[in-house]
Amino acid sequence: MFNIDNPHQFFDIYDNNDVLVCHWTMDKIKHKDTTIWVMNHFFFNPTNDSQKSMPLLLDEEMETAKSISKESGCPIWPLDPKIIDYFKNHPDFYDIWYQKPFTVE
């Protein structure tokens, strides 16, 4: 879970053997004229088991990111190419995407 009042959100997911599967962070900052969440690098452990579950895990973690954005009222600026691609392929993220590289009409 997350604490919406904490400007540094971090998430570590471990498997049943206590091996790190993924790690990601977001930082709330004042940018130009608004407050945003900067979503930093999204790390996936490159083991075979974690790669098989990566799409499902990514869906779950992106729902957490969306919840943080909606609850705080601050959009997300993803920096990781994997996450940018995820946002591009999921239109339900367009309204929380800060500085998306295209216009949605």
Structure description:
With 105 residues, the protein is of the alpha+beta class. Helices cover 32% and strands 29% of the residues. Strands 1, 2, 3, 4 and 5 form a 5-stranded mixed beta sheet that branches. 17% of the residues are buried. The protein has 2 helices and 5 strands; from the N terminus they run ββββαβα. The radius of gyration is 14 Å and the shape is globular. A hairpin with a 5-residue loop joins β1 and β2 (20-31).
Helix/strand layout:
Layout: E1 8-14, E2 20-31, E3 34-39, E4 43-44, H1 48-72, E5 76-78, H2 81-89
Task: Give short descriptive properties of this protein.
single chain, 105 residues
Helix content: 25-40%
Radius of gyration: 14 Å
- Give the ordered list of helices and strands: EEEEHEH
The helix-and-strand class reads alpha+beta
Q: What percentage of amino acids are in beta strands?
A: 25-35%
What is the overall pLDDT average?
A: 90
Distance between the termini: 34 Å
Main sheet properties: 5 strands, mixed
Q: DSSP helix count?
A: 2
Low-pLDDT residue intervals, each spanning 5 or more residues: none
According to DSSP, the number of beta strands is: 5
Specify the overall morphology.
Answer: globular
